[in-house]
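User: I'm preparing a small set of examples for a lab meeting where we compare how different chains pack in three dimensions. I only have the primary sequence for this one, and I'd like the structure in token form so I can line it up with the others. Please keep the answer compact; I'll paste it straight into my notes.
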Amino acid sequence: MKTTMKVLSFVLVVAMLFAMMAGCASSDKATAATSSDAAQTEQTASSDDAAASTDGETAAPAASEGTINVAFIGNTTGDYAQYGIPVRNAVKLYFDQLNAKGGINGKQINLLEYDDKGDGVEAVNAFNLAMDKGITAVVGSVLTSPTIALADATYEVNMPQITASATAAGVTVIDPDDPNSEVRTNVFRACFIDPYQGEKMADYAVNVLGAKTAAVFYETGSDYSEGLMNAFVEKAEELGLEVVASEAFATGDKDFKAQMTNIASKNPDVVFCPIYYGEAGLAITAARQAGCTSMFMGGDGFGSVKDYASAEDLEGTVYCSGYAPGTEDVAQFEKDYCETYGVEQVPNMFAPLAYDAAMIMTYGLQAAEDAGLEAGTEEYKQAVIDAIKNMNGVKGVTGTYSFDEYNNPIKSAAIIELTNGEEVFKEMY
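Assistant: Understood. Below is the structure token output for the 429-residue chain.
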């Protein structure tokens, strides 16, 4: 869609007794940071900043020839805002730093922020609002379900989209169960897919931990949870890891005593819980109270679990992550993030993944701008998509990026272990 430029005009009205001149105001432009300090000052924000208006959009200037409009859509309020806020913050950090260095060929990135509250309808509504602002790309959403809903909408208009954190195979593939399913060629991700994580943790359980038996505990109706669980069980069967118990809970449940009592009775070597941090903390606490001494394992949803259960109960728990905290590759990002947002440490792996997502989208935008294409045109959007698709070993803070035929990243995984109440990088696997 081509962006319609408003033509500034001056109207001179002449009356017999007096004359008067009136002019309409030009569109505002994004104010660029002139130094890294200025950029950091500009981007310091509380979680309340995510919803600055009734429609979830923060105030932003209109498009102009000197700006490139990019939308961030994600859940910065409500449940799981612990994911959405760091993602928003890291995306903003990257683009603010980019703008401070001159942007893309002198053009500033104008980031339009929308809070989708973790809801698919809200995500699509936000995208429609962003389209009216003349966006060229979307970073988002954060959680799996709204990301899939958003992907359906962006695919219809071939809008470049990347998610930092939505891991379900169905984000980039319309029907993951169909090997011939249509791929959403415009949608990319910086994180691992669910099957990859499930397979990785089953392999780790057998070949590193030496596990012979396992239990699974998952959330019914969750694309994320069921995706990881199914992949784990399938890989476990292949590797000879016996699944001795399978327990589930419905969304909103908080009492896991019955399920954990049953798991404890089977005494598995490991318990794989492909669920988010809040429920994971409750589940592990309930398990320990039921006498379960098994090692707990999780996917990337375990990030921040240290805040939801005691250090004693969590000791030895491991999970799969796309981020290796404290390593040389992420040191500068961690320093910048902590200084910018006034925190002692990066809250979870989704922040560096979001930083990489913004980097990847910038790579595509740079290609379109270098080609001299007009923002909003089909040629421009396709140029962004083609550039990302053809990335080969481009380095981010969480690893180097190339993409497979399903637009999923090809990269290694970090194993995080809970030690003395802290989430500590253990090894790449």
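A couple of notes for your slides: Residues 195-321 form a domain with the Rossmann fold fold (CATH 3.40.50.2300). The chain has two domains: 36-192+327-411, 195-321.

User: Perfect, thanks.
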